[in-house]
Amino acid sequence: MKSNRDPILLYDDQCGFCSYWVDFVIQRQKRGGVDLLCLALESEQARDLLHGHDLDPHEIDSVVYITDGRAFIYSSAVVRILRDCRFPWCWLSVLWCVPKGLRDWGYRWVALRRQRSSRCVLH
User: Fold this and answer.
1) How many CB atoms lie within 10 A of CB 43?
2) Is residue 7 within 8 Å of 67, Cβ to Cβ?
3) Could you give the CA distance from residue 101 to residue 122 in angstroms, rounded to a whole number?
4) Could you tell me which residues are beta bridge partners of residue 120?
5) How many CB atoms lie within 10 A of CB 77?
6) Sheet holding 8-11, edge to edge
7) What are the CA-CA distances from residue 63 to residues 1, 32, 33, 40, 88 (Å)?
8) Is beta strand 37-40 parallel, antiparallel or unpaired with respect to 8-11?
9) pLDDT at position 76
10) pLDDT surpassing 70 at residue 28
11) Cα separation of 21 and 12, whole Å?
12) Phi/psi zone of residue 54: left (φ > 0), alpha (ψ -120 to 50 degrees), beta?
């Protein structure tokens, strides 16, 4: 049974890059009784979770990582996800020290390029 403390990853399942990223994360998750639940952003369950964290599902254009009762978006989600990965990937969580504005700029830069990719189908 899924624990309320287990992390949840919400992502754009219509995007090839995003799906690759989710597979990457699943393969590198730490062991030890924690189960990562991955849901499409468009799903009803994801919308309910977003509302529960005061996030508008119609305005979210980011991966969302829910852990320890908090929802993280944009670069903060990526860094928290990396923190929960096995060695050596967890070391990349040092990016938390980079100012959020700069991290989010980098996140949006990548996001814009993934949207231009033919492997990413957005609706």
Assistant:
1) 13
2) yes
3) 25
4) 15
5) 21
6) 37-40, 8-11, 64-67, 70-73
7) 24, 24, 23, 10, 22
8) parallel
9) 93
10) yes
11) 11
12) left
Model pLDDT for residues 55-66, shown as the tens digit of each residue: 988 888 889 999
- Structure tokens belonging to residue 94: 């040092």
Arithmetic mean of pLDDT over the chain: 82
Task: Output the DSSP codes for the chain.
Answer: ---TTS-EEEE-TTBHHHHHHHHHHHHHBPPSS---EEEETTSHHHHHHHHHTT--TTT--S-EEEETTEEEEHHHHHHHHHHTBPTTGGGGGGGGGS-HHHHHHHHHHHHHHHHHSTTB---
Q: pLDDT of 75-123, one tens digit each?
A: 999 999 988 888 887 788 888 888 999 999 988 888 887 755 545 444 3
